[in-house]
Amino acid sequence: MPKKMTPRRVEQYREQGAIYERFNPEGRLHIVCPQCGGLVLLCDSLSRMERKDVAQVAAKDSAAAVERLKTMLPCGERQAKAIVLHLRREGAGCRHCGAENPRGALLCAQCMSVNLDWDF
Question: How confident is the model over 33-54, as pLDDT tens digits?
C-alpha cells in the first residue's frame, strides 16, 4: 500500500458521493484524485498540441492556463483549476510528493495523486 494511502483514506475514497455532488463530469472522461478528492477531467477532446500548449502556459502562469482551458473546454472555473493543479511539470516527479514516476503514469505510486503528463 502506498505510504500516504492509509486504511482510513482508502475507506474515505470508496465513498465518492459527496464529490459528485460538488462536481458534475457531465458524462466526460474523468478521475477522482484520491489525494485531494477533486474530480479531474481527462480532456480526451483536446488534441496533443492543445494539451502541450496548456501545459506550457501553466508552467509560467497557472491563472492564464485556467482561462485558456475554460475557452477550450465546456468547463467551469473549478474544473479548469483542478486540471491545472494536476498537471505535472516537465522533468519533475509527482506534482504532489515529488516521487519519481514513469511518464504517462496517471497515479503516483507513493501518494496516489493524479498526475497529468501534457508536456510531451
Answer: 888 888 899 988 899 999 999 9
Q: How far separated are the first and last CA of the chain, in Å rounded?
A: 29
Say how many domains are in the chain: 1
CA angle 11, 13, 18 (to 5 degrees): 115
Q: What range does the domain containing 28 cover?
A: 1-120
Give the separation between CA 98 and CA 112, rounded to whole angstroms: 12
Q: Residue 3 — pLDDT band, cuts 50, 70, 90?
A: low
Q: Residue for cell digits 488534441?
A: 47
Q: What is the CA radius of gyration of the chain?
A: 14
Task: Decide if 98 contacts 69 (C-beta within 8 A).
Answer: no
